[in-house]
Amino acid sequence: MFGLDTTLTVLLILCLVLACFFEFINGFHDTANAVATVIYTNSMKPTVAVVYSGILNFTGVMFGGIAVAMGIVNLLPMDVLVDTNPYHGIAMILALLLSAIIWNFGTWYFGIPSSSSHTIIGSILGIGLAFAFLPGDYGVSAVNWDKAKDTGLALLISPLLGFSVAIIMMFVFKRFIKNEIIYKEPIPGKKPPIWIRMMLWITCGLVSFFHGQNDGQKGVGLIMMILIAVLPGQFAVDSSINLQSVSANVNKIEMLMLKADTVVLGGKEKKMYAEIMTHSEHFKTVVGSNFDAHEIALSNRFSLRKDIIKITKGADKIIKSGNLSLSANEIKEMTKEIKSSKKLIEYAPSWVIIVISLCLGLGTMVGWKRIVKTVGEKIGKQHMSYAQGASAELVASMGIGVASAYGVPVSTTHMLSSGIAGSMVAKKGLKNLQKGTIKTIALTWILTLPVTIILSGSLFLLFRAIL
Predict the structure, then answer these.
(1) pLDDT tens for residues 221-247?
(2) How far apart are the first and last CA of the chain?
(3) What's the whole-model pTM score?
(4) Which domains does the chain have, with CATH numbers?
């Protein structure tokens, strides 16, 4: 398999299976959030609800793009972590996946709504931080702190937004929907009016679709990390992209940089400027007159990826510094060229997207009952009304949709469970919440990052010593 020895092939297959298993768990762990509202309002039978949600999760992954997936890949700067020993890549991936699976499976077993996003990001950060304990000049450079900061901020803000916006949504409903039936608790065993059921079908579908679009991409990102770490020559760049078109993008970035006045740049900007020029020349030299990645030696393909990362990341940072002495049109043109050149490295093969779609969709259809019971019965002291279910799901779907558009991983669990809590507070204040459940969810939210960081970092150092 791609020239790997038997042991490495077996380990690579194991890593791919574990990534699929993580996404399978993600399906039944997180999808419960989407189906809880339609089940507990008698709007849809449980079996129908999970199949419906599973299909839309599958669709969300298939048509969700790869922005979030690349956000996951970019949390660990692969140019730092990929070395000549593929077993080191295996150690990294095994530690990451096992720690994420252990925490996700454990919280599911105890019926605690927990964020798969938090879990996987904590595991990734644990790997990066563990590099500081290895020989060599890694330190904290093994973590992309800029990306980690953006991701952490999104995960911190999402539950607060879900809680507050759900309260606002309930007041909006009260203002514009005067039919009192929507605010009453469902009668056990009795279906609500068709217009209420349709509203909840739509909101459940939206949450499921956007969950697939965001969380499904995390699985895609995980598999790409595995493939790039173990088989950098085969998967570092998209072989379907015309290298000459990317070379033209790189050349344009270089020309625009040459027009800028370097005197006004700060020390860090000057260093990045020099790196851009060095990697630009290297990229054009390696590509030469070749049109296809298959014409480039396997040993050189990862260096092309590294060139594009250094060029685009450096140019982005210099633009954001405000010290680039170019016109507004020239900066706009450079931004366009940066985005266009990234197409060589920001990709995922179709088979990866299809496999993750299937795993998430199938996972949605099993194991959902534990979390559904917590979300549906244990967050508020009263049974969820139709308006509360709809407001929580509208808030969650909007939040996840916006995050996906910006390529930021966000927690479906936190968005929806905090939305339900907000809808409960909107009706009867804080006294309407079950404090025990809220404390458990909050404690899990706080502990997820440190536990997964320590667990994945420890496993990585252990596997690195063994393999």
Answers:
(1) 999 989 988 888 899 999 999 999 999
(2) 19
(3) 0.83
(4) 14-233+350-466 (no CATH), 237-344 (1.20.1440)
